[in-house]
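In this section we walk through a basic example: taking a raw amino acid sequence and producing a predicted 3D structure, encoded as discrete structure tokens. The instruction is simple. Fold the sequence below.
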Amino acid sequence: MDPSPDADPPPLAAGAFSAWLAGMRRTLDSDADADVPCGGCTACCTSSQFVHIGPDEVDALRRIPAELLFPAPLRLRGHVVLGYDQNGHCPMLVEGGCSIYEHRPRTCRTYDCRVFAAAGVEIDDDQIEIGRRAGRWRFDHPDEVDRTRHDAVRAAARYVRERADLLPAGTGPVNTTGRAVLAVRLHDAFLGHDDETDRRVVVEPDPEAIRVVIGRRLGP
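The resulting token sequence is shown next.
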């Protein structure tokens, strides 16, 4: 029997949390391609997103019409953004697929909407399709370490949202994507050790520890 059209869509397997987290951190630290099981989903291509493209991304820039590119705000000369059409769709999306997929910008290569499910961050109102997709991801927690690390990422996301005034000037995320990504970067600072149980636990770090981590990871 076919499901009702009004039924909630089924959940999506996001994989073991620790494995995903390790891959996400590699992507953030090295700009390696994110390995996302998109399954034909184009939510990130149809949600009114500006795609940043750096001046070193010659391959992508060569394949995108110059009239579709605009100077990136608050970036050095040469950094541009690719906008979207009147429907909120990326202009490089043709017949439901990316027309430059093998040459797509770094922003697209490293994007992983599972980060929102990992951090427990709600999507901006103008990115409804991404929110729907992200809300379906379900991580596995094969052992206690996976569960504790997941809790630490969510604790970091809450800290970034509720205590943004304690973050170093200029490092506070300006959108939900930035908050979720920063939570992944900071989560180690929220992990401690319980001597009585000899287990890793989630802790509230000193603000200075957060500043040190941000300086080390995001600094020059």
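Looking at the output, two observations stand out. The longest helix spans residues 144-162. The chain has two domains: 11-29+115-220, 37-111. In the next section we compare this with other chains.
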